[in-house]
Amino acid sequence: MIDSSHEPFDKNVEICKKVVDYAHKFNCSVEGELGHLVGAQFDEGEEGGGHSTSGHYTNPDEAVKFVRESGVDSLAVAIGNSHGAYKFKGEQHLDLERLKAIKKALMDAGLGDYPLVLHGASSVPKYLVDEINKYGGKMPDAQGVPEADIEVARRVGCTKVNIDTDLRLAMTAGIRKVFMENPKEFDPRKYLGPARACVKDLVRHKVKDVLCCAGHAFD
Fold it and tell me: 106: buried, middle or exposed (CB in 10 Å: 19+, 13-18, 0-12)?
C-alpha cells in the first residue's frame, strides 16, 4: 500500500507508478489512494452534491484517470470515511452514491470489476465507548461509520475494508474493566487475556454480520 494522497494528483500518480513498476517485477499487487480521509463534514468544494475536483472526496472521473496512469491494482477511496474515533459531527453517513459513481465510472472505462478499498471504516460501537467511559475513560461524542453503510459499501465493490479503531476500543474496554475492578492487578496475563477476548468477539461480529465474509477464506 502506497499512500501519497496528500500530494497533488500528478505527483500522486508519479509516486504510485514508481512503486507499481517495482512491485510488479516481484508479482506484488499495489494499493493506491485518491482523496483525503477527513470525515464527511469536511468535504469542502462539493457544493450541491456535485463531484467537483476541488473537494476532499474521490472524484469518479479522476479515479479512472488515476488507475489508468498509475497502474495500481486496487484503489482506496474517500467518501466520508476517516481515521479515529471522532469521524462525524451530527448525522453519520458515507457518500454511498459517490461510491456507486466511482465503481460505475471504472466499469464504464473498461476496467472491469475493479477492487476498491475503504480505509477508516471503524463504526465506534456505542457499547464499547460506554464501557470505556464506565471504567474511567473520557470519550465524549465519539462516532464512527454506521455498520449498515459499511455493508452497502462492501456490496457495491469495496473488497477490502480497514478496521482498526474498533479493535483498539475493544482492547481498551477490556483492560479498563480489569483495572477498575481489580486495581491491584499488575500481571499482564490477567488483563490482556480478557482484552483479547473482547477483540475476538468484535472481530467475529464484523466478519459474520458486517462484512459477511465468514467461510469465504478460500474463495
Answer: buried
